[in-house]
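Can't attach files on this board, so I'm pasting raw text. These are the components:
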Amino acid sequence: MSFIAKLAEDLCTGCKQCIFACPEPNIIRFNGNTKKVEFYIDKCKGCGLCAEACKFDALEITLA
Amino acid sequence: MIPKISPGFEDVLPVEYRELVQDGSYGRNLRIKDLGTFKESIEEHPLCAGCALSLSIRLIVASLPCPEDTIVVGTTGCNSILMPQLAIHNIHSLFGNQNAVASGLKRALKIRYPDKHKDVVVVAGDGGTADIGLSMTMHSWFRRENITTIMLDNEGYSNTGGQESSMTREGVVLYMAPLGKKYPKTRMFEIARESGCAYVAAVSPASPRRLEKMVRRAILVARAIGPTYVQIYCPCATNYKFSPSETLKRTKDDEQIREYMSSDAKELIERLGE
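---
Top answer:
Structure tokens for the assembled complex are below.
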């Protein structure tokens, strides 16, 4: 059983707070065209720091 | 030195390495605000979920003013299991020797590259800096070596099962310290200030922009004036038994952001506009 972060794209405002809170490098990338973040989820450990940092409830931790 | 891929080898190199060369941080003067838009210098790491120490190292690496000309000196601790994955020159030293190794390295680099700035940055845990390596750390400050010392203070020996360190707070009970610690936390900020550091700062990864500013200031002051010290508070979710998602909240609650600079350092920072 493992946990990963799940992004609700319509709620993302591209404020990048999740990128500054994530301890894992290169998982959350900012897409300059859509002005939203993208997840490269294979290396996510599901700690939940990004979900805590998100002020728009766009992120939640779910079972993988 | 900025690495390049030899012609003909583009398609056989691992994809991570190719991305690092083509989209990495070398020679581009990138800052923390640019995180997420470039390939970071750490590929992945085996530290625990929600580790504030790994977040701090990620932010430190993104804040380096000149990553291609930086040498990171590490020592035993949680941070040393991340260092092999770091795409910046780094050295692992014996436990506690990091500031002595860094002093020699900086002196050699000054002779080898007299017209170039090579930043030597020590990144070590609280055990390496404040317990086992305290004498070597303090003597590098007494000798006014041009190195930056960054201590990642997770308040214990987390790598070996949770023994108390001198940075553990009074009364804290850990797995391998069942009676609780009997004396207060060492005042490393004051020790650094009184030992001759030109710039001393304490911060936590909950304030990434401030962390960036302090790390950059510490490195720039170390280039020109003398030793500098930055203490980063990184609570350990595994040994302090809290949920990994609470790490930054706890960091914010206990945060004590402090900064000291000598008059020379203040003048330099104002001149550089940092």
